[in-house]
Amino acid sequence: MTIIARDERVVRAMGEMPSFKVGARVRISRRHPVGHYRVPLYLRGHDGVVERVIEPAGIDNEEEAYGRNAGSKLHYYRVAFAMAQLWPGYAAASRDSLRIEVFETWLERIG
């Protein structure tokens, strides 16, 4: 996916605007649907910070795999998590972090 700077002159269709901005605090939804899903279990329920909005909007790969997408598009976001938050007792540097791209439907707005 390509990261593109947003052009203020572009008129976006309904649903094309990203729901989250860089710097937004988000929580990964704590869902456990049946099947193959692309959000690791160890991230669910944890808080992170949006580092990038991935442009252009894309299809939900999870729904597409089950034939339920119907062409709708939302955004992926690169989200950063502190390693110590994910794994209590993590003994390395406090600045260590994990980054992952997550589809919009898994993100919840916090604070």
Description of the structure:
8% of the residues lie in helices and 33% in strands. It contains two helices and five strands. 12% of the residues are buried. The model has no long low-confidence stretch (mean pLDDT 86).
Strand content: 25-35%
Q: What strand order characterises the main sheet?
A: 4-3-2-1-5
Number of helices: 2
Class inferred from helices and paired strands: mainly beta
Largest sheet: 5 strands, antiparallel
Task: List its traits.
111 residues; mainly beta; five-stranded antiparallel beta sheet; globular
Architecture blueprint of SSEs:
Layout: E1 25-28, E2 47-59, H1 61-65, E3 73-82, H2 83-86, E4 97-103, E5 107-109
Antiparallel strand pairs: 1-2, 1-5, 2-3, 3-4
Summarize this entry quickly.
With 111 residues, the chain is mainly beta.
